[in-house]
Design goal:
alpha/beta, Rossmann fold, 6-stranded mixed beta sheet, 3-stranded antiparallel beta sheet, 6 helices, 13 strands
């Protein structure tokens, strides 16, 4: 299976964005996240619209089977979620990020209010080693096999509902932190469905936003109503997968 991940953010005035991207990067490269490699992950901070669209086309040209897209930063809503990708206020619509691959998970940690109109040292992370190569290969194969078992679908997860704001902290986005705290498979489950993780992240996010900002933040999603066995997963349980 050919997989690609695109992690990008707009850190203009938002100290937690870089941490969000770093946390998702660490998750993907972990055993639980599917043992992604540096060659499969692209990290971009504050990209121009032209460079980002070119990057999307380049990834599409590689014809990946599965893509994992994450955006953290400023956003709004106008006939779809609008992402502000740099300090020059350039934007991209979520629709321009769909169907990069036939199986795709897109996560948008940004505001969705209705409108009328220095990156981390990723090389150091890439140098990190996770156990031995043989174990990683088996975990990667199990992860990829389950991804390809899912029907073709576009899953979109949002940090808040339309008309709401998504809140940032010095420790990262409230939603991103709550979502990543919800990705661990329970008990003897081999995998965690992306929809289940989102449902677990919802009350955590709402509670945290109320505690920190006294504001309502209700995560939302667009997920296919297919059989559980046909849904996309967010993570794998390395303690259960046979080695």
């Amino acid at each position: 299976m050919k997989r690609r991940a695109l992690l990008f953010g707009n850190s203009n005035g938002l100290p937690g964005v870089k941490l969000d991207i770093e946390h998702f990067l660490k998750f993907l490269m972990s055993e639980q996240g599917g043992c992604w490699t540096e060659f499969e992950i692209i990290v971009e901070m504050n990209p121009t619209r032209t460079s980002l669209l070119a990057l999307i086309l380049a990834i599409k040209a590689q014809k990946p089977d599965f893509t994992f897209v994450v955006f953290s930063g400023h956003g709004g809503y106008s006939k779809g979620t609008v992402l502000e990708i740099n300090k020059n206020e350039e934007v991209i619509n979520e629709s321009e990020l769909r169907w990069i691959a036939p199986r795709q998970i897109s996560i948008f940690d940004c505001c969705r209010n209705v409108s009328t109109v220095t990156l981390m040292d990723s090389k150091a992370l890439f140098r990190s080693q996770y156990l031995n190569e043989a174990r990683n290969n088996i975990l990667r194969q199990a992860y990829e096999s389950r991804i390809m078992q899912a029907i073709e679908q576009q899953v979109s997860l949002y940090a808040c509902s339309v008309g709401e704001s998504s809140y940032d902290t010095n420790e990262g986005g409230i939603y991103s932190n709550c979502f990543l705290s919800s990705v661990t498979p329970l008990g003897y489950d081999r995998f965690k469905l992306v929809g289940v993780a989102q449902e677990e992240a919802k009350p955590k996010t709402t509670k945290k936003a109320l505690e920190v900002y006294s504001k309502i933040q209700t995560p939302d999603q667009s997920i296919s109503k297919c059989l559980s066995s046909e849904q996309l997963i967010i993570s794998i349980n390395p303690t259960v997968v046979t080695i």
